[in-house]
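This section describes the prediction task in plain terms. A model, or a person checking by hand, is given the sequence of a single protein chain and must write out its three-dimensional structure as a string of tokens. No templates, partner chains or ligands are provided. The sample shown here is typical of the held-out split.
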Amino acid sequence: MTDFAALLRPNRGETARPLHLVDATLFPEWLKAHAGARKALIEAARFEAKPGQVLVIPGPSPTADVEVLVGVARLASLTPWCLAAAAERLPEGTYRVAGEVAPGLSALGWLLAQHTRTTWKSKPDTPAGPRVLLSGEPARVAEIVRLAEATGQVRDLVDTPAGDLGPAELEQAVRDWAKSAGAEVTVTKGDALAQGYPMIYAVGAAAEPSRAPRLIEATWGDPNHPRIAVIGKGVVFDSGGLDLKPAAGMRLMKKDMGGAAHALALARLIVGERLPVRLHLLIPAVENAVSGAAFRPGDILRSRNGLRVEIDNTDAEGRLILGDSLTRAGEEKPELIVDFATLTGAARIALGPDLPATFSNDDGFAAELLAAGTEVGDPLWRLPLWDGYDEMLKSELADLSNSADSPFAGTITAALFLRRFVPENTLWAHLDTFAWRPVPRPGRPKGGEALGLRAVYSALSARYTRRH
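The expected answer:
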């Protein structure tokens, strides 16, 4: 992984090229006060301080060779991405934000713009030299580096082809983190999985033996601290099962383990911050494949909590593995459960790629999540757990169906299915996230992406730091 810690350091007065952050409304005044003889050069370059514009100009003295103008949307409220374009375009060197402006979370975009992605090219691109940012907020440097590392991990895992990332490799990623974090790992597979977690087993039963399904669990923290559970959907590839997806729908299904990547990254952040919680991480890891062992439309599956589920659609498999995982999490009596899943195409139709559809059984907790998302520039959008749609999951033969009998409200009915497996009186939030960026932006290349991760981390950090 990229060495983000080498790219962001506390400012201890060393020589660095200044970055002047200017927005369009204040730019005329800045030009009068600072440009001097360089005004004509700036105007000739047609720099207007639009967001994403970057201009390198000569420095005011021989000891300061260059300065950089960076256009931002609003100087009073910097986004995490306002320095990303500069980090992508500037030459190797050391930089600092000029004046009284603190980089804050904009340093995150500076780091992620330099994230070296794993590729499978025969001749990998040569990365540009490091662009180091000096921060006037030394207390925040470590946290921002951790955020970059967690985001980078999500991107790397989601980008990895399914042929290179099966359930075993996902398990190894958890074990590698757990070893460094001091967490304990438990993996359930084979007959124990079939008996104890029948829906997880059924979804993964058609895969090759080397890609056998499993439930990966990890625990960390003081048992006397509040217990929280973090769950991530780990479908390493989703063919749709016997309800086979069309080619266009299958192309990106390596990213169907994006929920697991988010959950593991959130666990990493929780441990890095040493939040006073007892963490329980759960990742059901499966491949929804096609073979004679595949579960079928019309099958009725037993779940861990005893409910019988009729299979209306084998392509609605994520909710099945999450159902057994939610039941397992509830057995440990957590006060709070959060799950991440690339669950429904309906969420993308409703909200597009940037906004994770967010559900919660508690208005206060939902408000915390949404407010945190706004504060850290990782927005969420709440959708309702509308009780009136529960009847769409009705089955004539079983306790419920895994897919609604209507094309309407697909994201909501999926969340209502999950709610059946959440223990009573337990705070719960479900994020239906895309985990993918279809169009590149500064600091955010096309490919795997963390969407909702920083919002949830910020909300949990505020909640448990405050209580402790």
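For orientation: The longest strand covers residues 278-288.
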